Amino acid sequence: MSIQKKLGKYSIGTGDRFAHQAKAQLQACIQALQADVEVTPVWNKSNREHLIIGSEPTSVRKAADEAVQALGWTGAYFCDADHITLQTVDRFVDACDFYTIDVADAIGKQAAAQDVAAFADRHRNLVGEIALKGTAEKFSITDAMLRGTAEKYLAAVQQAGAVYRHILAAKGEGNFLPEVSMDETDSAQTPVELLLILAAIADEGIPVQTIAPKFSGRFNKGVDYVGDVIQFEREFGLDIAAIAYAVEHFGLPQNLKLSVHSGSDKFSIYPAIHRTMHRLDAGVHLKTAGTTWLEELIGLAEADGAGLALAKEIYAEAYAHKDELCAPYATVIDIDPAKLPTPSTVAGWTSAKYTEALRHVQSAAGYNSSFRQLLHVGFKIAAKMGERYLELLRANETIIARNVTENLFDRHIAPVFLGHIS
Description:
Number of helices: 17
CATH architecture of the largest domain: Alpha-Beta Barrel
Oligomer: single chain
CATH class of the largest domain: Alpha Beta
Order of helices and strands: EHEHHEEHEEHEHEHEHEHHHHHHHHH
Largest sheet: 8 strands, parallel, barrel
Number of domains: 2
CATH topology of the largest domain: TIM Barrel
CATH superfamily of the largest domain: Aldolase class I
């Protein structure tokens, strides 16, 4: 499979809801480069987020291009059509060169019986024990496992193939990076299932450069990982070993790597990710998504005055509409209503109290994960404010940018890619 555009070994997905923080985000990648580690920025924004904000994919491209020019970035960078399907991909074709092909909804749907049988026959050589590089463990694959995985995942992979070929027809070979995403589903894929899914992806002719499985444990939006860290580290290592086997035996791209979706703020597993990457000499794509929007709120609150007043107003509106705001994200948030302060309580907060509740420093006495999660999904409130919100972003650019850069570098890039825990 030929590749022209290529994603580097280490990369980070950065969401920028309102397209005002691209320079601050890129500055974090520049700081990584100054520490002799290149982390490729990938600006991502989903169709759902564009619809909520009222923006177009061209706004992401424009912000990224302007940031790169302003800061003199000479490395690769990409714009991601995040979680697209065949129904939503067309609006992203002109602006994007990275496509997260989301097939979670097709998992469990039955492919044609003859296709399942053909997959099982084609990969009969995988039945038995498979030795994996970098680990003493082996995969044990049975005929039933081969067929069962095809019955569960083959239709989803075929859907990914249809989307990939649609993009290919529009953009041409080698002009974009495909990712296949299976994370927004009920159950995690095992490392063995991941290996067989990659076999199906290779059969479809998709030169996938990142694969986003669902890992065990909870990956809630904007808060720490909930689960067994030791189990995660074992599975993460086996997933990397599965990818290495797939690259060697299925002809997939040499730079294929894991993509960790909802990866922002998963502080407890960052050391495990770093250790495993270095032990197996592997790359990773860490997707941080909406963290930047929260840093905008923190910056506004830090600025006090009109900024703090607006941050309090946004919380009050989010509190009043919490059911509506939370519904689309029900599978990736865990909010305890009893721990949400009332808007009247928040109205009396100082700048320091608001920022301590929101900033993801778990050792802080006032940190409130429910408060943080509600505001994470509450960007729709700011979007409805339109120019009023954007004016305050521009007026407080310096303090907001500092928060955005510090968060992305100190809490995400440094522990994952440099191995530094702040």
